[in-house]
Design a protein that fits this description.
heterodimer, A: 362 residues, mainly alpha, Cytochrome Bc1 Complex, Chain C, two-stranded antiparallel ribbon, 3% strand, globular, B: 432 residues, 23 helices, 57% helix
């Protein structure tokens, strides 16, 4: 095997200059410190995204994006297609684990202040990727065209309609009309399998390029010790770290397989636009905190519609997240920034609390 | 016929005395409303206030004088209430007894006039009323019986489909109960057998499945008093016509009952088993020859001579058998559904089996075990198909579990191998 590898490498070497790649492989290291465990989250998120692409392509072979056939085609996948049930369940579970991993990755990076100079753009691209993942979740939820997803999309796109000035335009753009119909399904399908993947691929390539070019960030404390002359302990990326990464992916794969086999994703009943709204309609768990907050807001605040104020506030929070590295000047100077730590912790507590409360709220 | 003669005379006289109100536009000014609204005596002020509120007649341009007569343009009380004036302005006052029927019938029995307001509405209420127990009692001079105003109100009359109307479906029973649940009011009235007319019908009805459907489920098609007794022609359904009355809604049951041996035996048809006002939700326990079975009222369990008891027991056994096998298959299918296997076809089949069970419960009204058997066979065949599918589901589940176990085993081996490899290369690096 190794002879064959050597021959292949030699064959390639003869045609391309691989010294840069060899140098990268030999030199790339991963810092060793108490917080190094968080490094795995990025890799796990990437792995789950790969699972999504793989299972998504398989689902595309049978899925039909029309109001008349979408539900039946998913039903066909889970009942008649050999291992279709497994692929669909893995796709649904992996989507949820992916968003959970992306959130965990986001909070770990936030709390470790890894966004500080010179990694501002890595952070910004990561935040945009997180938004894209949420977009994947939102658009993919409607595709089975079942009752829950239909009405949840109605509520979700209705919230988009509350955006000041551009709200109505946004609502019509998302729905392809005034109401959720087959036109909405076509749009969401296009978004889910073409627009979002294209944007994600470009942004992900950029994100990974930044990480490779700049290497892994170390916590502030470690950085301070380095400044005192203490050498940075590192392990080679190849093979020491990559093997650990692969090990973590295998563990995630085992969890995914067990979840898909024992907790199938319900298909529900086919969406009926003329049916009354069933009770307990709520979005997927990752939108619950926002949804519940908007629900709790009073109808009017200072004479302005409460929901509109809420939507603007969430928009500002999203913008704030993109620009965190540029706002946290202390972290950029290598100093502690407790204000941002408190903001991240409060954000985490808020998300967990409101997600739980939103789940049990009637 | 002789008894009703005075009633028709009264109607005729009133018709002459009153003008065809609907043909005329509403009169302005209406001094009746102006004066009555300000009189301190409640008896005289209340009608004006009610009429000024929500009233279907006022909304269509009718005024006080259209029923009470009098001159609404007169400023003086005496002229307004002049009983001796021209026929068109002669004051009638408060119509009582037959005069009420006449006052209402003047318009409501006039097809041409009613067409201008409510073309679909019937115009035979007065004729029907004359055939009712209320109407015949009134014709005998009994003024305690219900007339139009007793149920519809006199002032502030609302349309029948107005939820606040006393004759709105959900309010009918309470409206009838105002008299029929009042022992004092009903004192002296007797059943054909001479026994006093009971007053517990409303209390019984409130326990019934019909009342529950009407008031809890808001099913306005559920029967209330008038659906069985009639409204304007209200009378108890004759003994022979009970099955027809129930069959108005329960058509299939009535059809089955028509073919049964009970048809000739039961004096009161459906009521014999289900009761009349307090109709309870039927259950399988009602069938059979023992325990709480209704059949046991006449039939004897275990008797070799009682073919009816044997038939009842056989039908109950078949129904119980299908019910149990559906429940069993339901549990099996639920287990596979929870395990992640798609079972919607089986769920649909079991739904069909439950429909067959309902049909079998309908079939028992023919009191023929052979007919019940034939229906049950169809349900049993469906359940057998579901059970056969369940065997396939069990194999699929086993396959999935084995597959998962193998996959997890393979993953575990790779994880362990990777962990060992990582340890080895870490050690090698440390040694270097």
């Amino acid at each position: 095997m190794s002879v064959m590898l050597q021959q292949t490498t030699a064959w390639l070497e003869e045609r391309f200059d691989l010294s840069g790649v060899r140098h990268f492989v030999a030199e790339k290291g991963v810092p060793i410190h108490a917080q190094k465990v968080w490094y795995y989250l990025g890799g796990i998120t990437l792995f789950l995204f790969a699972v999504q692409i793989f299972t998504g392509i398989l689902l595309l072979l049978y899925y039909r994006p029309s109001a008349a056939e979408a539900y039946e085609s998913v039903q066909f996948i889970v009942t008649k297609v050999r291992f279709g049930w497994l692929i669909r369940n893995v796709h649904s579970w992996s989507a949820n684990l992916l968003i959970a991993a992306a959130f965990a990755h986001f909070f770990s990076v936030f709390l470790l202040k890894s966004y500080r100079k010179p990694r501002e753009l890595t952070w910004a691209s990561g935040i945009l990727l997180l938004f894209l993942m949420l977009g994947f979740g939102f658009s993919g939820y409607l595709l089975p065209w079942n009752e829950l997803s239909f009405f949840a999309t109605k509520v979700g796109t209705g919230i988009a309609g509350g955006v000041p000035i551009a709200g109505h335009f946004l609502l019509r753009l998302l729905r392809g009309g005034d109401d959720v119909t087959g036109a909405t399904l076509s749009r969401f399908y296009g978004l889910h399998v073409a627009v979002l993947p294209a944007m994600t691929t470009a942004l992900l390539a950029l994100h990974l390029l930044f990480v490779q070019r700049q290497g892994m960030s170390v916590p502030l404390e470690t950085e301070h010790r380095l400044e005192t002359g203490e050498p940075l302990r590192q392990m080679p990326f190849f093979p020491n770290y990559i093997l650990r990464d692969v090990l973590a992916w295998y563990v995630v794969l085992a969890i995914l397989a067990a979840l898909a086999a024992f907790y199938p994703w319900e298909l529900g009943t086919k969406a009926d636009p003329f049916a009354p709204v069933p009770p307990g309609i709520r979005p997927e768990w990752y939108f619950l905190a926002v949804f519940h907050t908007l629900k709790l807001l009073p109808s009017h605040i200072l004479g302005i519609e409460g929901e509109r104020i809420g939507i603007v506030a969430f928009g500002l929070v999203a913008a704030f997240l993109v620009f965190v590295p540029f706002l946290d000047r202390r972290a950029s100077r290598g100093a502690r920034s407790p204000l941002f730590t408190v903001a991240a912790v409060l954000g985490l507590v808020y998300l967990i609390t409101f997600t739980i409360v939103g789940h049990y709220a009637k | 016929m002789r008894r009703t003669a005075p009633a028709f005379t009264a109607i005729a006289l009133t018709l002459i005395a009153l003008r065809p109100a609907g043909a005329q536009p509403a009169r302005e000014p209406n001094t009746c409303a102006t004066c009555h609204a300000s009189v301190p005596e409640q008896r005289l002020a209340a009608p004006a206030a009610l009429f000024a509120g929500s009233d279907v007649h006022r909304d269509r341009g009718f005024a006080c004088a259209d029923c009470h007569g009098g001159d609404p343009t007169a400023a003086e009380k005496s002229r307004a209430h002049d009983r001796t004036g021209r026929a068109s302005t002669a004051f009638i006052g408060k119509p009582v007894g037959q005069a009420i029927i006449a006052a209402c019938a003047r318009c409501h029995s006039d097809a041409e006039l009613m067409r201008t307001f409510a073309p679909k509405q019937r115009v035979d209420q007065a004729t029907e009323y004359a055939t009712s127990v209320h109407g015949s009692q009134l014709a005998r001079g009994d003024t305690r019986v219900a007339t139009c105003a007793s149920c519809h109100g006199a002032h502030g009359i609302r349309l029948v489909n107005d939820a606040k109307s006393p004759v709105f479906a959900a309010n009918v029973a309470a409206t009838c109960a105002r008299c029929h649940a009042d022992p004092q009011h009903m004192a002296g009235y007797k059943l054909p057998d001479g026994s006093p007319l009971p007053t517990q019908q409303f209390a019984d009805y409130r326990q019934s499945v019909h009342y529950a459907a009407l008031t809890r489920v808001n099913d306005l098609s559920a029967p209330t008093c008038n659906d069985c007794h009639g409204n304007h022609g209200a009378a108890p359904p004759g003994v022979g016509s009970i099955a027809n009355v129930c069959g108005t809604c329960h058509a299939v049951f009535a059809q089955k009952f028509e073919a049964s041996v009970h048809r000739q035996i039961f004096d009161k048809g459906c009521v014999e088993c289900h009761g009349n006002h307090a109709v309870m939700k039927p259950s399988d326990e009602m069938l059979g020859a023992g325990g709480r079975a209704i059949c046991a009222t006449c039939h004897t369990a275990g008797s070799a001579d009682d073919k009816g008891a044997q038939a009842a027991e056989r039908m109950r056994a078949r129904i119980d058998g299908l019910k149990t096998s559906i429940e069993h298959s339901d549990a099996v299918v639920a287990r596979f559904r929870n395990a992640g296997i798609e079972v919607s076809d089986d769920e649909l089949a079991l739904h069909d089996a439950r429909t067959v069970l309902t049909l079998a419960r309908t079939e028992i009204h023919a009191a023929d075990p052979a007919r019940v058997d034939a229906v049950i066979e169809g349900g049993a065949a469906i359940v057998a198909r579901v059970d056969k599918n369940a065997e396939g589901d069990a194999r699929e589940l086993q396959f999935r579990r084995r597959g998962l176990a193998l996959s997890l085993g393979a993953i575990l081996i790779v994880v362990v191998a990777l962990a060992l490899k990582v340890r080895q290369i870490d050690r090698d690096r440390a040694n270097r």
